Amino acid sequence: MTATRLLAAAACALLTLPAMAQTTVKDPWVRGTVAQQKATGAFFQITNATGGTLLSASSPAAGVVEIHQMTMDGTTMKMRALPKGLDLPAGKTVELKPGGYHVMLMDLKAPLKTGDSVDISLVVEGKDGKKETIALKAPVKALGAAAADGHGGHGGHKH
Predict the structure, then answer these.
(1) Quick one: which of 97, 122, 139, 142 has the most CB atoms within 10 Å?
(2) How far apart are CA 153 and CA 85, in angstroms?
(3) Which of 133, 96, 150, 145 is nearest to 22 (CA)?
């Protein structure tokens, strides 16, 4: 094989390799709701190999999806959207959990029952400016799951 053909074959092989995902997501889940509840939280662990930002999320199960942070100020629970997204330090796992960072699913189209699953799409922007979309299928867990931290079912959260 000539050097030119060898280079062409190598280039073709590189072009057919799948793109390496920079972001991994583990253990996604969504808290179940009751009949009239219009909002809930989605939780997971996310790691970006090179660092970046969780820019946004969307779901066909909700009219509005935002990245949020919950903090306690004394005995007062404060919730705020993160319009610029959530920083993902290179190689470090960021946990979205009740009582902290989470994805807020609002204007729910139907109650979410234990055993159902919810499709969620995440958009992550790497430090290089490239965007990556991650599709999740998050199982719905019981309304009381991890509620001992006072985060509850998020039903009373208003904008």
Answers:
(1) 122
(2) 23
(3) 133
CA–CA distance, 88 with 76 (Å, rounded to integer): 27
Structural domains present in the chain:
18-145 (2.60.40.1890)
Integer Rg of the chain from CA:
19
Q: In a 3-state reduction of DSSP, which class is residue 67?
A: strand
CA distance 22 to 152: 32
117-126 vs 101-108, strand pairing mode = unpaired
β partners of residue 134 = 122
- pLDDT per position in the chain (159 positions), as tens? 565 555 455 444 444 334 456 899 999 999 999 989 999 999 999 999 999 999 999 999 999 999 999 988 899 989 999 999 999 999 999 999 999 999 999 999 999 999 999 999 999 999 989 999 999 999 999 876 554 333 444 444 433
| SS3 category, 6 | helix
Structure tokens at 79: 């919730």
